[in-house]
Design goal:
single chain; 126 residues; mainly alpha; 5 helices; 55% helix; elongated
Length: 126
């Protein structure tokens, strides 16, 4: 039971961190706008009025203002701070590497005396 609560808290925290709460609030605002406008005009006109941007409700205006203030606050909070823990760097010099000498190939002269048969042998048709 506590594991499910823990998972729910983690999912909720992730949703809040990516801004899903604004999507939920905006969806609620659009839903109420469609309902309110459809009481006065047809459903197609209500949907058009909801999403055209010319007829925002008070909730839409507050959501937009809150989103812009959040973005400004995030932009202001980003400042470069010096990394004092890793400010000094150590330079490590590696020892010189030695060249690797490959062993030489010694060819026996008796191996060179035998040449392949000329012409090469052909297989007999079966």
């Amino acid at each position: 039971m506590t594991a499910r609560i823990g998972h729910a808290v983690v999912v909720l925290a992730l949703c809040l961190s990516i801004g899903a709460h604004w999507v939920v609030l905006q969806s609620v605002a659009w839903g109420t706008m469609v309902v309110r406008y459809s009481q006065q005009v047809s459903l197609t006109q209500a949907v058009a009025h909801t999403f055209d941007g010319d007829h925002p409700c008070s909730l839409c205006k507050r959501i937009s203002a809150a989103q812009h203030s959040e973005k400004k606050r995030d932009a202001q909070s980003v400042t470069l701070k010096p990394d004092l823990i890793c400010a000094t760097r150590r330079i490590i010099l590696l020892p010189r590497s030695a060249d690797f000498l490959f062993p030489g190939l010694k060819v026996n002269a008796s191996l060179l005396a035998h040449s392949p048969p000329t012409p090469p042998p052909r297989s007999e048709p079966v």
